[in-house]
Amino acid sequence: MTGRVAVITAWSRNREDHLRRQRAFLEGVRAPGAEVVRVEVGLDAEAAPAPPGIVGAHVPPGHHGVRVGAARNEGARIALAQGADALVFLDVDCLPGPTLLTRYLEALRRHPSDLACGPVTYLVSAQRPRSIGELDAMTRPHPARPNPAAGDTRSAASDEYDLFWSLSFAVTAETWRRLDGFDEAYEGYGAEDTDFARRARAAGVGLQWVGGAHAYHQWHPAGAPPWRHLDDILRNGARFARTWGEWPMRGWIDAFVAAGAVEPHGDGFRRVVA
User: Fold this and answer.
1) What pLDDT sits at residue 142?
2) Domain of residue 117, residue span
3) Facing residues of 115 across strands?
4) Is 222 within a domain?
5) Which parts of the chain sit beneath pLDDT 50?
6) What are 156-164's contacts with CB under 8 Å, separation 24+?
7) Which InterPro entries does this UniProt record tie to the protein (predicted)?
């Protein structure tokens, strides 16, 4: 696929260092025959200016926290208004591998009606790459998701759609319009990407695992389970369950239950009241 491709990142100031590193690494990523447009959408209460060469936008928090899905939708709206033929969504924590754009565009050329998802390596705290050339030696894709050979794609089975991560994925403009973006009712942490994948499956949109479209998740402190997101997980999980008849993020929820902070209630879960 040639034409114009937009790389869309939602970010907040507590990840500004990660964003600067992502910008620097994207300078070293090539997409022959394609014009690359950068769109960055701020998630904080106050807007921040974008540097030259980057289109900036702002989606402030909602009542329940940051609106990542809404920010991605806004980034896509801007990109499409500027004539983007393909959209690549890259989490602010993610560094692009040198062939990420090339592999995504090849996959979309072969499968223009599908979502395209590349492997993600989670870097450990000691791994702070300074140049894109260092990434190859750090490649260790997360074992939970398929990792085809570079240049290959594999169609996801129906039961693999829940493995979709919005950390790094690509889609044609036509397919994005067909799916109408993320459900903006999800605020704070969790479930909006699984909901997006479920809606894609329901609409008959395929999912391709794309070999060689590597992204590298920069380390940051995180809880296991993520206690600061407990209320988000319960709220967003309940919304997901109302739509799909089952709860997402069960690993985290089961951990909260085991810790005595959450209990089963009716068909779902709720906080334990002390």
Assistant:
1) 94
2) 3-217
3) 207
4) no
5) none
6) 156/206, 156/207, 156/208, 156/209, 158/201, 160/207, 161/197, 161/198, 161/200, 161/201, 161/207, 162/194, 162/197, 162/198, 162/248, 164/115, 164/117, 164/193, 164/194, 164/196, 164/197, 164/200, 164/207
7) Galactosyl_T_C (IPR027791), Glyco_trans_2-like (IPR001173), Nucleotide-diphossugar_trans (IPR029044)
